[in-house]
């Protein structure tokens, strides 16, 4: 039976800007921008009916210090192979901040820098990852479909 690593990330939007992080040197995706997120951990299993949203809330708090109180919406999942040929399923969520305070406190061991950027700024950033380009387009499509 094939075992997958399950990771999540969240496109957090506030006043038309998305929270993006830059990965620190020496680790996964060194120097590249992405949405905050991480692995689903065993502690998330205590929420069996919404394990992925529990992982989103935990990872966002750990990485950027936000306690998400606004709705977290599932958008899409992707598959890729990580280092050592590890099969990875990545699920991307969306959260527009209305009630959550947008005060960011980064975990310096996990994040080099952060920024609030528009979609256009993300797409033009010199250190934007290929996957973030794809994800921001998919998030914008998702948002447009929600309003029609």
Fold and architecture overview:
The chain is α+β, with helices and mostly antiparallel strands. It has one domain: Nucleoside Triphosphate Pyrophosphohydrolase (Alpha-Beta Complex), CATH 3.90.79. The chain has 3 helices and 7 strands; from the N terminus they run ββββαβββαα. It has helices spanning 51-64, 119-124, 130-147, and strands at residues 5-14, 17-22, 33-34, 37-39, 73-81, 87-96, 113-117. Strands 1, 2, 3, 4, 5, 6 and 7 form a 7-stranded mixed β-sheet that branches. A hairpin with a 2-residue loop joins β1 (5-14) and β2. It is globular, with a radius of gyration of 15 Å.
Walk me through the topology.
Elements lengths: L4 E10 L2 E6 L10 E2 L2 E3 L11 H14 L8 E9 L5 E10 L16 E5 L1 H6 L5 H18 L1
Parallel strand pairs: 1-6
Antiparallel strand pairs: 1-2, 1-4, 2-3, 2-7, 5-6
What structural keywords apply?
single chain; alpha+beta; Nucleoside Triphosphate Pyrophosphohydrolase; 30% strand
How many DSSP E strands? 7
Which regions are unreliable across 5 or more consecutive residues at pLDDT < 50? none
The third-level CATH topology is Nucleoside Triphosphate Pyrophosphohydrolase
Computed CA radius of gyration, to the nearest angstrom: 15 Å
Q: How many H/I helices? A: 3
Residue-averaged pLDDT, rounded?
A: 93
State the helical fraction.
25-40%
In short:
By secondary structure, this protein is of the alpha+beta class. The longest helix has 18 residues, at 130-147. It is built from 3 helices and 7 strands.
């Amino acid at each position: 039976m094939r075992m997958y690593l399950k990771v999540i990330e969240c496109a957090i939007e506030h006043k038309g800007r998305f929270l993006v992080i830059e990965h620190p040197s020496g680790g996964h995706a060194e120097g590249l921008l992405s949405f905050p997120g991480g692995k689903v951990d065993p502690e998330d299993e205590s929420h069996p009916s919404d394990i992925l949203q529990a992982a989103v809330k935990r990872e966002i708090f750990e990485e950027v210090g936000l306690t998400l109180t606004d709705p977290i919406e599932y958008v899409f999942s992707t598959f890729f192979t990580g280092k050592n040929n590890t099969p990875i399923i990545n699920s991307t969520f969306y959260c527009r901040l209305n009630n959550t305070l947008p005060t960011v406190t980064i975990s310096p061991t996990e994040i080099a820098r952060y920024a609030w950027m528009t979609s256009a700024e993300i797409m033009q950033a010199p250190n934007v990852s290929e996957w973030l380009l794809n994800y921001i387009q998919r998030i914008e499509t998702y948002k447009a479909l929600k309003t029609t």
